[in-house]
Amino acid sequence: MSRDLPLRSSLLVRLLALAVLVAVGSIAATAWLAARTTTGAIRQEQGQAIADDARIYDTLLGYAATHPDWKGVDATVRQLGAQVGRRIALTDGSGAAIADSMPEAGPLPTKPSATIDALSVDTALAPRADGSGDRIDPRVTGPYLLPPGERATLRDAADQAVHCLRVRVGIDAVVVDGPTGRPRVDTPGTDLASNEGCLSLRATLATATATENKALAQLNGQVNTCLARRQLPPVRLGLGPTWTWQQLAPSPVDQETRIPPAPDPDANRAANTCVGSSQREQLAPYVAPPVTLFVSSPTGNTPTGFTISRANQARIAGVTSLVLLVTVGITVLAGVRLVRPLHALIGAAQRMRDGDITARVRVTGRDEIARLATVFNDMSERRERLEQLRRAMVNDVAHEMRTPVSNIRGWLEAAQDGVATADQRLISSLLEEALLLQHVIDDLRDLAAADAGELWLHPQQVYLADLVDQVVDAHRAQADQVGVTLTPRTDRDQELYADPVRLRQAVGNLVTNAIRHTPAGGAVTIAAHPDGAGATIAVTDTGSGISAEDLPHVFERFWRAEKSRSRQTGGSGLGLSIVRKLVEAHGGTITATSTLGKGSTFTLHLPGTPPPT
C-alpha cells in the first residue's frame, strides 16, 4: 500500500518537511529577535506608556463624569499608579494638590500631561467610539439619568424590538444599555437607516421619557435664551441632543414659490455653539471640576542596545544545527508511529471495500488514531450485523410471503382441477391466508414509512380511559376465544394530545402479542396513568415471558423468540418494531421487562404533546 504512494505525498515526508520548516522559522525568528537592539523594546515601552496614559486619562475622566467633586479620588489614583508603575498626581486650577500616588517622589514635572474635564474631553487621548466630535464624556448623565420605572419600560420596548427584528426581519440584534439607563437596539454589521422593519417598535423606543423631557425642556430654554441674544429664532431639542428650527421667516421669493428657505450655515453654526455651551452649563453641577493631570516615571531609566560578537554568532549557529537535528529525529520517530496505524486502517478499509465485512484493525494506545481504529472496528461490526440482519430479513420476508401465497395457489389449483370443493370452509381458509399476507404487507409498509420519515401523525385531544376501553373492546373476542382475561386499569381524568389511530395501533399490537403468548387461564392487563405532563401505558401479561438474553432483541424486525418458522404462535416478528416506531413518532419511548415463565410488561412513556412533524 505505502509503496504505491508517491514520496512527495507521503504523510511522513510532509510531517518532516513541516517540522523542519517550523524549526527553521522558529530559530530564524529567535535569532532575529536576539540580534536586534533594544530599539523595539523602547518603542514597545513608548507604546505601552501611551496606552497607560490613555487608560489613566479614561479612568479619571470616568470618575469626573460620575462624581460632582474629587473627594475620594485618592484610592483610584493610588490604584492606577500601582497598576501602571508610574506616578499620578492631580492639581486644581491654583496648583494645589488634590491627589498624588507618590507624594514622596518630590516635585511634579513642570509640564502637565493633560487636563481632566468631563465636559471638554481631549479626543486625541479618548476618541469617541462613534467617531463624533462631541467633547462631552458620554458617561455624564446629569438630569438625564432614568429612574428604575422608566428603565424597565424602555427595556421592555427594546426587548420587543429585538424580538421583532430577529423573528420578522431576520436581523441579529442586541440590547445595549447606555450610561443614563436608556437602552438602544444595536445591529452589528447591519444598517437600519433604510430598513423599515419593526419601525413602530423602534419609534417607541426612540421616544423621550418624562425625565428626559423635563431635562430637555430645561436645556431648550437655555439654548433659546442663547439664540435670542444672537437674534436668532428658537429651536426644538430632541434626544441626543438633536435640534431643529422652530420657525424660519421665508423670503419673498420663497413665499411666491412656496419653497421653504434653506438653513443659513452661519445660523446653524451659532445654534450648535449655543447647544454645546448650554449643555455644558446644564451638566456642570453633576461633574467634578476640571483638574490638571501629571503622569511621570519614578525611575527614568532608559534601556541600551547591544551587539552580537562572532563567538556568540557561532554559538547561535551551533544551537540552530542541534535544534534542527533533534527536530528531524523526533519528527521521524513520531511520524513512523503515526503512519503505521494509518496504513493498517487503509488496508482494512480496502478489504472492506472489496467485500470482506470481517475486516478489523488492531487497536493500540489511547490517542486519536486509536479512537479512530475503535470507531472503524465498531463500524465494521455494525455493518456485519446489518448485513446479517438484511439477509435474515430477506429470508423472513420471502418465507412470510411465500407461505400464504403457496397455500392460496395450491388450494386454488386444487379447486380448478376439481380435487377440492370451493365451499365455505375453503373460502374461509383462503381468506385467512390472504389476511395474513395483507397483515405482513401492511406491517412492512408502516415500517418503510417510518424509515422514510413519512409516518405522519394527526394529533388531537385523547382521553386515555376511552382509548384503553376501545382497545379492550376490539380484542375482547380474541381474548375470550383463547381463555385469557383482559382487564383495563385507567385514570378517567387523564388526557393526552396524540394521534388516537396510531396510539390504538401501538397498544393494540402489544395486546395482540400479549394474548398470543398467554396460555388459557392467564390474564392481560392494560394500565394507563399520568406521568408528569404526559402519560404511561403498560401492557402486562402472565404468559411465557422472555429470557434475559433475548429481551434486548424484542424490538428488532422479524425477531421471534421461537427461532423456527413454524409460526405456531402466529405473527411476523414486525409488531413490536412497529410499536417502537409509532411511540418514537410521538416523541416517547418504550421499555420491556420480563421474567421467563411468569410474564412480560411493555411500557409506553408518552409526552403530553408529540414533536412537530
Name the average pLDDT: 80
The biggest beta sheet reads: 5 strands, mixed
What's the total number of strands?
15
How are helices and strands ordered from N to C? HHHEEEHEEHHEEHHEHHHEHEEHEEHEE
CATH topology of the largest domain: Heat Shock Protein 90
Organism: Phytohabitans flavus
Domain HAMP: 336-388
Keywords: Kinase, Membrane, Phosphoprotein, Transferase, Transmembrane, Transmembrane helix, Two-component regulatory system
Pfam family, one: HisKA
Brief descriptors of the model:
613 residues; alpha+beta; four-stranded antiparallel β-sheet; elongated
Précis, in short:
It contains 14 helices and 15 strands. It is α+β, with helices and mostly antiparallel strands. Strands 10-12-13-15-14 form a 5-stranded mixed β-sheet, with helices on one face. It has a 4-stranded antiparallel β-sheet with strand order 2-1-8-3.
Describe the structure.
- Pfam families: HAMP, HATPase_c, HisKA.
- This protein has helices spanning 11-35, 39-66, 74-84, 148-169, 199-205, 210-229, 252-257, 265-283, 310-353, 368-416, 424-451, 464-481, 500-516, 575-585; strands spanning 87-91, 97-100, 114-116, 174-177, 183-186, 235-238, 242-245, 291-296, 460-463, 485-490, 495-498, 523-531, 534-541, 589-595, 599-606.
- The two termini are 48 Å apart.
- The protein folds into five domains: 2-37 and 306-352, no CATH class; 40-140 and 287-296; 142-207; 211-286; 456-606, 2-Layer Sandwich (Heat Shock Protein 90), CATH 3.30.565.
- The chain is an alpha+beta fold and 613 residues long.
- Helix content is 50%, strand content 13%.
- The protein is built from 14 helices and 15 strands.
- A hairpin with a 5-residue loop joins strand 4 (174-177) and strand 5.
